[in-house]
Design goal:
Radius of gyration: 17 Å
Number of domains: 1
CATH class: Alpha Beta
Shape: globular
Number of helices: 12
Structural class: alpha/beta
């Protein structure tokens, strides 16, 4: 068991790969494997926990529910809650919700908070779930998360879902812009901590501006090989927004070992590296 004193990093962005989560992807499983050039084998929660335990890391496990737009039910959130209970030294669970389910989504957030003590909600994907975070129809969801002290994670920028297919699977890139959609919401809920996941290319400058401007918004570096991070992202992450940048791998899309190796080659200041890999997440999740 890894103690908090022994931690070297917290990976804030991992996707469970049990049979249930892979089944919930439907045809996206094959499409995204082709896009990223990486197959997704089945990995149990116990196996994933052991992998991160061996690395002396914790991991946020995220979920998604796009039943309204896809017709496919998301994997049960209870699986993540139980994984957090079974491996409290490793896992921090985020519940997946379908924002179009309205009060049912609110009820699911409250249930997961009360029964399992989840740490957040997401990863929400505005492009794939076909919604806009600043649409006031969804504000009761963000109000509930703020009330319960939960972190909310949004996919930002180019989505892997639908990439390389005719019409992009019907997903609109516009929905994944950080400004104005997440930015408006962050302004309206200053007490709510938000993770804008990924550098948000091609709107990475908008993302950096939003994170710099609003202290309740964090940026995670997941989904990109660090050597390919835009220069502006590297510069800002190593300077003015260092306190709100988080290590995320997007596992299994990106291996942790590759991410860490390439990140260490970027020459970040030691204090920036420490904050990004560990300290910022510990503060965000009140560990």
């Amino acid at each position: 068991m890894t103690s908090l004193d022994d931690l070297v990093a917290i990976d804030v962005h991992t996707h469970p790969q049990t049979e249930e989560f892979i089944a919930a992807m439907g045809s996206r499983h094959t499409q995204m494997a082709k896009h990223f050039g990486r197959e997704r084998p089945i990995v149990s929660f116990a196996e994933q926990a052991d992998q991160y335990r061996d690395r002396k890391m914790m991991a946020v496990i995220v979920n998604s529910d796009s039943e309204t737009t896809s017709g496919i039910k998301g994997a049960p959130n209870d699986l993540l809650g139980k994984a957090q209970q079974d491996h409290p030294d490793v896992f921090l669970a985020f519940a997946g919700i379908d924002p179009w389910k309205g009060q049912a989504a609110v009820a699911e957030i409250r249930r997961m908070h009360d029964e399992y003590g989840i740490k957040g909600v997401g990863e929400l994907n505005p492009a794939r779930q076909k919604f806009l975070p600043n649409d006031r129809r969804f504000y009761p969801i963000w109000e509930t998360c703020a009330e319960l002290g939960l972190v909310v994670m949004f996919h930002s920028g180019f989505p892997g879902a639908g990439a390389g297919t005719p019409g992009g699977g019907g997903y609109r890139l516009e929905n994944a812009r950080p400004i104005p959609y997440i930015d408006d919401m962050a302004a309206d809920f200053p007490e709510l901590n938000i993770i804008s996941a990924h550098p948000a290319w091609p709107w990475h400058l908008d993302n950096l501006a939003m994170v710099w401007h609003k202290s309740n918004v964090y940026l995670d570096l997941s989904g990109w090989a660090p050597k390919h991070l835009p220069a502006d992202v590297r510069q800002y992450a190593n300077s003015v927004i260092t306190d709100r940048v988080l290590f995320g791998s997007d596992w299994p899309v990106m291996t942790v070992e590759r991410w860490m190796s390439e990140f260490d080659e970027l020459g970040f200041k030691p204090e920036s590296r420490q904050k990004i890999l560990l300290d910022n997440a510990r503060k965000l999740f009140r560990l």
